[in-house]
Amino acid sequence: MEKKCRFCGTPLKHTFADLGLSPLANCFIREADLNKKEYFYPLHAYVCEQCLLVQLEEIEAPERIFSEYAYFSSYSASWLDHARRYAAAMIRRFPLDKQSLVVEIASNDGYLLQYFQADGVPVLGIEPAANVAEVAAAKGILTLVRFFGTKLAAELAAQGIAADLLIGNNVLAHVPELNDFVAGMKMILKPHGLITMEFPHLLKLMQFNQFDTIYHEHFSYFTLRFVQNLLAAHGLKLFDAEELPTHGGSLRVFACHQEDALRTVSHSVPDLCRQEEEQGLASLETYRNFDEKIKKVKRDLLTFLIQIKEQDKTIAGYGAPAKGNTLLNYCGVRTDLLDYTVDRNPYKQGTYLPGTRIPVFSPERIGATRPDYVFILPWNLKTEIAAQLQEIRSWGGKFIVPIPEVQVF
């Protein structure tokens, strides 16, 4: 069956990154299932020659990936701080009060909406993963356990539910039906309502070799220019954008109805689009050259880890993020090179990483085993994690991060 672009329908012919076969990055293995079959899928990202959207095929349905989810946002202190600061900034910039409604799509465990609610602003979360939504509900955050699109948007609109602020942070990449999703956003936005979305910036992914952020639940990878065109195709105007340090480099965009004359386009939008063009992101060839950079990162990482193990040194991982599972599976790193990993999320503790079958323990394991090196898999949180694990310095331990290149500190 011919592969076609999920935005414009153009046949997909050009490889952006071919990471071979990989399991679903958040399908952790329980002890009782270690001898059962595990499924691997092609992890092959293409770039559309027409609209330059980088994308994976929809190998597995969203219902299979997201209905029960292993990622809980609240386990990162720095991410909670990011959410708190965002809520405060939005309340100030777009005066929100008890008469307003903030709706978040993919609201996870309520990590963000809790800050609006604490300020007296009514909120509604939409979250497809029942196990995660349950945590939000326990915080008193009204949460619909549904996937978002035009069908749900029509139901909400029929009930008179419309958003003053509609949030889609780190969800757009998870959506296989981009056109249906954005059309739904327009349907439940008040006439002068605002949309904010955050997403990892493809420019940073390419500049800093962040290929491990490619995994099956991330269907698409975005430039600002593409998102501007996507929103415009559905009657929405991208009027402001700002760069964020999160996830290795993200964008936050602001949008409104195309006909909303109150909002004029900020200089930041053309400035950032120009920056993308200067880095070659308007040229198909730039995307096609990325695959070779990935191969070098793999070779360098394996060479380094093998050298360390040949010195009889021990290496433990910190974190069990989806990006880590992409990296470990692509590079072929198993317990011969990484003894174990740890994670603060109890949902992951006592499991094994998909594909590599590396065991996951609680963080206390590091103090008990005193490894020579701690391999930080969520490298975007390296500062936070290094501060939490200062104790490893007492026995001469060091940290490793793999992206954009192997670093020891």
From TrEMBL:
Residues 5-66 form the Methyltransferase putative zinc binding domain. GO terms for biological process: methylation. InterPro entries: Methyltransf_Zn-bd_dom_put, Methyltransf_Zn-bd_dom_put_sf, MeTrfase_14, SAM-dependent_MTases_sf. Keywords: Methyltransferase, Transferase. The keyword Methyltransferase applies. Residues 245-404 form the C-methyltransferase domain. GO terms for molecular function: methyltransferase activity. Signal peptide: none annotated. It holds the Pfam family Methyltransf_14. This is S-adenosyl-l-methionine-dependent methyltransferase. It comes from Lucifera butyrica. The lineage of its organism: Bacteria, Bacillati, Bacillota, Negativicutes, Veillonellales.
